[in-house]
Amino acid sequence: MTLPNLRLKRHEDRRLRQGHLWVFSNEVDTRATPLKRFEPGEAAVVEDAGGKALGIAYVNPNALICARLLSRDPRASVDRDFWLRRLQQALAWRERLFPRPHYRLVHGEGDWLPGLVIDRFGDVCVAQLNTAGIERHRHDILAALDRLLRPKTLVLRNDSPSRTLEGLATEVEVIGAPVEHVTVEENGCRFLADPVHGQKTGWFFDHRDNRARAARLAKDGRVLDLFVYTGAWGIQLAAAGAKEVVCVDSSAAALALARENARLNGVADRVAFVQADVFEHLKLLKQEKTRFDLVVADPPAFIKRRKDVARGMEGYRRLNKLALARLGEGGILVSCSCSHHLEAARLQQLVSGAAGIARTCALFARGGQAADHPAHPAIPETEYLKAQFYRVIPWP
């Protein structure tokens, strides 16, 4: 089958030649190859201004990122075997990393599968088909996944904001056996997660290594876990020997599952749950002069779009200032951000500023996303997660 061509303007091939996978609509020579002639998700051969092929991409004429490269080989066939090979490559890496089948199986551009996310919870898989190109190839992708893993249940969490940007409908679909909760195994603990109604795929595997590091620092300490969701941080820290953990979140549903997870791991007697606005509860703790040995601040993304940067940065500054104030001398702050618009250096500046002149802290460790969330080296947006570990130290 002969694919149509998508021609770029002069010099607009530079990013692709440097490894990037995206083509923006203003980079296309629309006189030579009008975008409106493409159907959403249609495969095409991307070529430079001189007509030299750069690879195969799928095209969405209605999106700002109008094409995403799938292969550098312009002769590649984007068929069921293509998707199967890519999934096999992704699986081989995860099986090398983890002894048990609980991980992110596919992480979009980091696995050369732009627009596709799949999390694996044993015999249950949760997938997000976030772009028109992935949606167009849905049948072949799901058939390849079934051939590779034979999951008992596949949950399609096609309710992400990315689909709206791509002009796609949002929906949640369960294929196979009905499922209410899945079991997650992480760092020696077991958790229940909700793959149908929970946030994103129901679980955040990306912080796996950061939670393990924090657990090593928690023994015999008092811990405050902010934005707890289903308890991944606080419960692992309790299991590692923290004598007391206070978990704060505004969601009653999330806290109900977190309580069950505390019982599941035998730490319910050392973990307390508070349903409250995190900022308001931090103010209350200040009034009560309550101190902790370790505080985890892992909020949802305060900066989802570039125009949110100023307001989001103020949110991170306030959060870290209030969190630092709850630590005694020698206390540890784990400050996190999943906003790719907030660079690690900027987060570090915010924490330093939040500490102010009344106290000082030392950054002793940095963490990012786990190895099952590979970042594409040419696409900074794929390296989004920051976890910075600070220790409050006395003035000399």
From TrEMBL:
What are the EC numbers?
2.1.1.191
**Mind listing the UniProt keywords for this protein, alphabetically?**
Cytoplasm, Methyltransferase, RNA-binding, rRNA processing, S-adenosyl-L-methionine, Transferase
Q: Where in the cell is it found?
A: Cytoplasm
- Pfam families, A to Z: Methyltrans_SAM (PF10672), PUA_3 (PF17785)
- Where the record annotates domain PUA, the positions are 4-92
Name the PROSITE patterns for this protein: PUA (PS50890)
Q: Which Gene Ontology MF annotations are present?
A: methyltransferase activity; RNA binding
Q: Name one GO cellular component term.
A: cytoplasm
Return one Gene Ontology term, BP aspect. Answer: rRNA processing
Enzyme category, top tier: transferase
| InterPro entries in UniProt | PUA, PUA-like_sf, PUA_sf, RlmI-like_PUA, SAM-dep_methyl-trfase, SAM-dependent_MTases_sf
Report the family membership: Belongs to the methyltransferase superfamily. RlmI family.
> Which PANTHER family does this entry report, sorted A to Z?
RIBOSOMAL RNA LARGE SUBUNIT METHYLTRANSFERASE, S-ADENOSYLMETHIONINE-DEPENDENT METHYLTRANSFERASE DOMAIN-CONTAINING PROTEIN
Kindly provide the name given to this protein in its UniProt entry. 23S rRNA (Cytosine1962-C5)-methyltransferase
Q: What species does this protein belong to?
A: Methylomarinovum caldicuralii
